[in-house]
Structure formats: structure tokens, C-alpha cells
Design brief:
By secondary structure, the protein is mainly alpha-helical. It contains 4 helices and 2 strands. Helix 1 packs parallel to helix 3 and helix 2 packs antiparallel against helix 3. This is Transmembrane protein 208.
Amino acid sequence: MANQGAKKRKEENSRRLKNLLRFIIFSNVFYLVVRAGIFHSTFKWKHWVGFMLTFFAYVIPYQQLAMMAKPTYSESGELEDGGFDLTTDGVCGYLHDVIYITGFVQLTTIISENFWYIYLVKLKI
């Protein structure tokens, strides 16, 4: 009973990371099936570059969130800390934004390549 908060945070973080991973896999598979499969005649090298850019724009924030959510255990194997709360604002919020905006950009570039400009607006380049 003493570590109920840590257990709850660990479960919430695990659920959140699982949902993010599902979102990332769905976005990548959908993009490849539709853009590279159905519209293969217009799929050029720059689309592969865009896919790799979005792939790494998913992987890096996801790995950072996974490291932040990693729970710590005592030497006896008891849960001490459930990891950082991924629902907080700040860095966690920004990393979630990057993942969701990347998904939006990736999926909408199937329709028009002009959606790449959203990265410029969000990242303020």
C-alpha cells in the first residue's frame, strides 16, 4: 500500500507509451501503404527523405519519453519510483507535441506536400 502512487504512475506511463507506439506504427504503415503503395508512380527520393525525417522525429522523442518514464526499483526488487509523470507540461508536453505534429504532417503530406510547412510554424525555424 505504501507505493500505490508509484504503481499507478508506472501503469499510466506504460499505457501512454503503448498508445504512442501504436500511433507511431499506424502513421508509418499508413503512410507507406498509401503513399508508396497506392501512389507509387509519384513516390520519389524526396518522399523517402521525408519519411526518414518523420521516422526520426518519432523515434527520438519517444525514446526520451521512455527513458523519463522508466521506473526505479530497490535492490530487493520493490518498486521505489514509478518514473516521471508523463502527463505534466514542459518537456513532456513538448515531446508529445512533436510526436503528434509529426503524425499530422506525415499523414497530410499524402494529400499535399505543402503540409511540410507546418514543421516551420511549430518549430519556429
